[in-house]
C-alpha cells in the first residue's frame, strides 16, 4: 500500500514538474494588467530527500561567497528516544529523510523591512518580494536581530545583509524560476503566484494541507510547508 | 504529526549585536541620564549661573555620546557605510527615528556645553573662537536647555525602544525595557556627573545640589529594581518562550553577570556603602567615589546582560 502510494506520488510529482512553467505564465499578466502577484514557495517535506542540490544551485545563481548560503536544510527526526528506528530498525541511525528548508520566509508583514533604518531591506514594488537595496545598507545588523526566523545574514563579500529573495534579480526578473525550484529533482519545491487562481501553487494549496513557521507571530510568511504524514499501520 | 513544523538552524550564528552595542547603550544612557539630571535640577531650582554640576554633566554627556557613536560606527559591517544611515531614512524604523533625535541632540549639546564652560574655554588655544560661538547663542539659552532636556530623555528611552523591537528575544522584547533604560541611565548618569563635578569642577561633596541628587538617587534606584523585577515576573509567568528565557536568571551562562554585576555591584554595594557603614565613612570622599563607580559599573553590567542574555534566548 505504502509503495503504491509513493509511486502515485512520484507520478503526480512528475506531472507537476511539467505543469510548473505553466504556473508561471501569470507573471506576464502581472506586468501588463493590474494584477498584483503574491509569490509563494511550497516546500514538500514528503518529497525532499535532503540532497542539497537546491543550496548548490542557489549559491551559484546568486554568486554567494564560499561557505555562505541563503538556504539550509535541517535534518530532523521523528524517532522516539531509546526505541529502534521505524525505517531501519537500528537504535542509532541517520536514515530518516525528514528535512526542513531554512530560508527567508518572505513575510507579508516583514520585521526586517520595518526596522531597517535606511530602507535597504525593502519590498520590491512589482513583485512584492522582500529583497535588498545593497547600495543603501549600512551594515547595522538590525534586520538580522529583528528576523524572527534568523534567516538573514551578512554577505561576507558585499558586507551587507542578504536574504533569499526568490532569485529576484538573478532569475525571477528574467522570467525564470528560482534556482532552487528549478534544480530540485524531487519536486519538493513549488513556486508561483497564489493570487492567480489558475497557478499550480494555488491549485496545490487548495488540495494540500500546508503549514507556516511560527504563524502566531503574525508575520504572515509566504513559505508554506507540507509536513510529512506518517505512513503505515 | 503535531500539525506544526519548525526549524532550529539559522543563517546567522552568534549574536547579531555584540558588546560594542552594549557599550553604546551604556554611553548613550550615561549621556542622556547625566544631562537629564543636571538640566532637570537647573530648571527645577531656576538656576542661571554655570553650576559645577551643569558643567560636569554637559561635558560628560558630550564625551560619552561621542564615544557611544564611535562604538556604533565601529560595529557596522563596514564603518565607511555610516553615511548611508544619515542620508536614507525609514520613519517606521526605531533606529531611524533615533538617528534624527541624535542629529538634533549632539549639536545642541555641544552648544549648551560651550555656553556652560565658557569660563574654562578661555584658557584653551582656540578659546576666543569657542567663546565667540557661545556668546552668539547665549540669548537662546533657556529654550535650548528645555529642548535638550526633552532630547536627553528621548535618547535614554530610545536605546530601550531600539532593542525592544526585536521580537525574537523574550528578555528584550518587553514594553518595560525603555523605562528600565531611562531609570538606569538616570542613576548612572547622575553618579557620573556627580563624580566629574566633585573631581574636576570643585563641587563641594555636601552642597545643596549634591544633597538633592543624593535624595533623588534612592527612588530612581527603587524604580530600576522594580522594572527589573517586572521583567523577571513576566518571563517566569509567561508563555513557553518566556519561561525558557527566564533561565537567563537562574543558572544560564549570564546569570552570574546578573546576580554579581547588576544586583551585587549595582544595588547591594551602594546600599551597604551608604547604610551599613559608619556615618564618618559613608560621608567620606572614598565612599562617594566608590558608590558612584558601583552605579556606573552596575549599569554597564545591566546593558551587557540584557543584550547578551537577551539574544541568547530566542524563541
Automatic annotation (TrEMBL), chain A:
The UniProt record lists the keyword 4Fe-4S: yes
InterPro entries, per database record: 4Fe4S_Fe-S-bd (IPR017896), 4Fe4S_Fe_S_CS (IPR017900), ET_IronSulfur_Cluster-Binding (IPR050954)
Protein origin, superkingdom: Bacteria
Record key words, sorted: 4Fe-4S, Iron, Iron-sulfur, Metal-binding
Domain 4Fe-4S ferredoxin-type: from-to ranges: 39-69, 128-157
UniProt xrefs under Gene3D superfamilies: 3.30.70.20
PROSITE patterns: 4FE4S_FER_1 (PS00198), 4FE4S_FER_2 (PS51379)
Name of the protein described by the UniProt record: 4Fe-4S dicluster domain-containing protein
Automatic annotation (TrEMBL), chain B:
Transmembrane regions: 21-41, 53-74, 94-117, 146-169, 175-197, 218-236, 256-275, 287-309
Localization (cell): Cell membrane
InterPro entries in the record: Electron_transfer_protein (IPR052049), NrfD-like (IPR005614)
Membrane topology recorded in Swiss-Prot or TrEMBL: Multi-pass membrane protein
Keywords, comma-separated and alphabetical: Cell membrane, Membrane, Transmembrane, Transmembrane helix
PANTHER family, per database record: PROTEIN NRFD (PTHR34856:SF2)
Protein family membership: Belongs to the NrfD family.
Protein name: Polysulfide reductase NrfD
Lineage per the UniProt record: Bacteria, Pseudomonadati, Pseudomonadota, Gammaproteobacteria, Alteromonadales
